[in-house]
Amino acid sequence: MRGLRRLTAGHLRRRLDNGAARRTSHRLLSVSSSSNNVISRFTSPTSTSLAPYLHASSGLGSFAEFWTGQRRTMFIQTQSTPNPLSLMFFPGKPVMEVGSADFPNARAAMNSPLANTLYGIDGITRVFFGSDFVTVTKSEDVSWDFLKPEVFAAVMEFYSSGKPLFLDSATSTSIDTAIHEDDSEIVAMIKELLETRIRPAVQDDGGDIEYIGFDPESGVVKLKMQGACSGCPSSSVTLKSGIENMLMHYVPEVKAVEQELDIEE
Prior knowledge:
It comes from Deinandra increscens subsp. villosa. This is Scaffold protein Nfu/NifU N-terminal domain-containing protein. GO terms for molecular function: iron ion binding; iron-sulfur cluster binding; structural molecule activity. One of its GO terms (biological process) is iron-sulfur cluster assembly. Molecular scaffold for [Fe-S] cluster assembly of mitochondrial iron-sulfur proteins. This protein has six helices and eleven strands. Strand 4 and strand 5 form a beta hairpin. Helix 3 runs antiparallel to helix 4. It is globular. It has two domains: about 5-170, Scaffold protein Nfu/NifU, N-terminal domain (Ribosomal Protein S8, Chain: A, domain 1, 2-Layer Sandwich); about 185-260, GMP Synthetase, Chain A, domain 3. About 35% of the residues are buried. It is an alpha+beta fold. The protein has helices at about 1-10, 20-35, 115-120, 145-160, 185-205, 235-250; strands at about 40, 55-60, 60-70, 70-80, 85-90, 100-105, 125-130, 135-140, 205-215, 220-225, 255-260. The longest helix has 19 residues, at about 185-205. The strands form two sheets. Strands 1-2-3-4-5-8-7-6 form an eight-stranded antiparallel β-sheet, with helices on both faces. Strands 9-10-11 form a three-stranded mixed β-sheet.
């Protein structure tokens, strides 16, 4: 995973203005794709009520432009992740106001209209919400060429519907790294490192980490990988060489970091 490899190298990149950077890449991508004549116009495959949109691909990724008459209503860009089965979709609008949300199965997605709709697409195995992106994970036997238009249409339909991202706002955000009064100094330090130093790098790769707990007797920190990081071929290695090394360096009481897998895994 690219973000964790940066941790392994000891270089934690300062987060730039992602919004401005992505807007720049949008413009470059649009020019590049148009000049290569790879744009095709077609109608949404999942809803006849949606307007036609442009879909294009280039070396920088792919995007979809949704139009209502002569007015562009949404611009969705995709970005690859270290996990070949996961793809990040940037709707050009905020997704999660605070934190992140992971939906490892269809049952977990029932609280979110958007996640529930995405799980209705054949071949989708996981959905994750970040601050300004949606990470979709697919099964190995389905092509992105088939899934991208379906996901584009589902995201467009959701933002056009005015529906809330969550039906129950109380369960909408993760507070796993919130520091509580009864947390020990060690646990507080672990949570702060995860939130400020490790989580930003992991989220750059379309995923997140969830703090499960710390055993003071064994010195083991348990984490759960989410989004594109879950099931990524390099996640187990980088979990040890990246996250574990950093936590052990700053918190000597930490002796190891272990990954807690989903029940399905």
